[in-house]
Write a structure and sequence with these properties.
The chain is of the alpha+beta class and 374 residues long. It folds into 3 domains: 128 residues, no CATH class; 66 residues, Alpha-Beta Plaits (2-Layer Sandwich), CATH 3.30.70; 102 residues, no CATH class. 25% of the residues lie in helices and 35% in strands. The strands form 9 sheets. Strands 3-4-5-10-7-6 form a 6-stranded antiparallel beta barrel. A 4-stranded antiparallel sheet has the order 2-11-13-12. The protein has a 3-stranded mixed sheet with strand order 16-15-25, with helices on one face. It is flat and about 110 Å long. The chain starts with a helix and ends with a strand. 20% of the residues are buried.
């Protein structure tokens, strides 16, 4: 009887261990990312393009007379069309000079369309409702790789009257969707059928090691980590006839990336982003706000009509100072991100106060994470 119970217990324990291992495996794969999402094939990168153009059709929100290069550009464009005008006689404010930028993706072919970003370089008040005219876009070598043209789309608007103005978002920069047509292709070297190099977008030795192990798990002996950001992969003989299929198989493998202990704060917007692995040593935090209110109520004393007296203005200032009582909150060693957020919420602090507290805790040496202020 004892032996039977012992076997049943061992069997039950084995089932529980297998279930836990399966749960851990599923959790790991749920947090995994494809290699193509965390890395890229060496040599395959976008190239920056830049151009200059005119946006027309604006409703009296374009560049003003003082923006000389806009008038010169308009004059040159009209002359190419056979129309000669005197630049000193041009008085239009429905045109704006803009810089046109875009990224030329790898393997872009002639006729492909890409988005372009249009930004005012003069004193235009808005590009709302404008259309970008023919604008050649050049690469670093000075060659024209694309030509942009089309309606400018803004992520906001502006409306004004004689005494008021309403504006949403930025209105002097916009996007032309599919506004540039590729006119020249970049010369890429043919894909090497013997080896390929994968580089991480964010260098990390832990991620590189896991990536190396994952590739060798599927293609034994093919991967070799070179440094904290690069893995060299030898293409197996059976794939050398079609290296594209091998690269496709590699970039779709899933790897669990390494995580960083990092906190990013934006003091301008009050945004706080805290990484998962942030840990804090035992520290006591107290936070209180000081509120100062100043109210001016001047007292005016005027003389009677036809009197020879003077008007006397007596300042009357009322000031009120309030200081909230700070409450100490103790955060123990090994506090996780969930505990940290709960503790800060318990203090009832705002996002900007959280930034001040995190900076103070970091200065005290109790925050084991990188604090980046942007």
């Amino acid at each position: 009887m004892v032996s039977g119970h012992s076997k049943d217990d061992m069997k039950t324990r084995s089932i529980l261990i297998a279930a836990v291992m399966a749960l851990l495996l599923l959790t790991s794969y749920a947090q995994a990312a494809r290699i193509k999402d965390i890395g890229y094939i060496n040599g395959l990168r976008p190239n920056q393009l830049i151009g200059y153009g005119l946006v027309v059709g604006l409703e009296n929100t374009g560049d003003r007379v003082n923006t000389v290069f806009t008038i010169q550009s308009l004059t040159n464009m009209l002359e190419k069309m056979g129309i000669r005008v005197d630049p000193s006689t041009i008085r239009v404010n429905n045109i704006a000079a803009v810089a046109v930028t875009a990224d030329l993706p790898p393997f872009a072919k002639i006729g492909n369309k890409i988005d372009v970003l249009v930004s005012s370089i003069g004193d235009a008040r808005s590009l709302q409702g404008g259309t970008l005219l023919f604008a050649p876009m050049r690469g670093a070598d000075g060659e024209v790789y694309a030509v942009a043209q089309g309606p400018v789309l803004l992520g906001g608007y502006v409306a004004s009257g004689q005494g008021a103005q309403v504006q949403k978002n930025h209105v002097t920069a916009g996007r032309v969707a599919n506004g540039a047509t590729i006119e020249r292709e970049l010369n890429y070297q043919a894909i090497n059928n013997e080896s390929v190099m994968v580089s991480l977008r964010t260098p990390d030795f832990t991620t590189v090691n896991r990536l190396n192990d994952r590739i060798n798990e599927v293609f034994p002996g093919s991967a070799s980590a070179k440094d904290g950001a690069t893995v060299a992969i030898a293409i197996p003989p059976q794939y050398r006839v079609n290296p594209v299929a091998f690269i496709s198989a590699v970039e779709n493998l899933e790897v669990l990336p390494g995580t960083f202990s990092k906190i990013v704060v934006n003091e301008r917007t009050g945004t706080v982003v805290i990484g998962e692995n942030v840990r804090i040593q035992t520290v006591a935090v107290s936070h209180g706000n000081i509120s100062i209110q100043i109210k001016e109520q001047p007292t005016v004393s005027q003389p009677l009509p036809f009197a020879q007296g003077q008007t006397v203005v007596t300042p009357n200032t009322k000031m009120k100072v309030e200081e909230e009582k700070g409450r100490f909150f103790v955060m123990e060693t090994g506090v996780t991100i969930r505990d940290l957020v709960t503790a800060l919420n318990a203090l009832g602090v705002s996002a900007r106060d959280v930034i001040s507290i995190l900076q103070a805790v970091k200065a005290a040496g109790a925050l084991h994470a990188e604090l980046e202020v942007i």
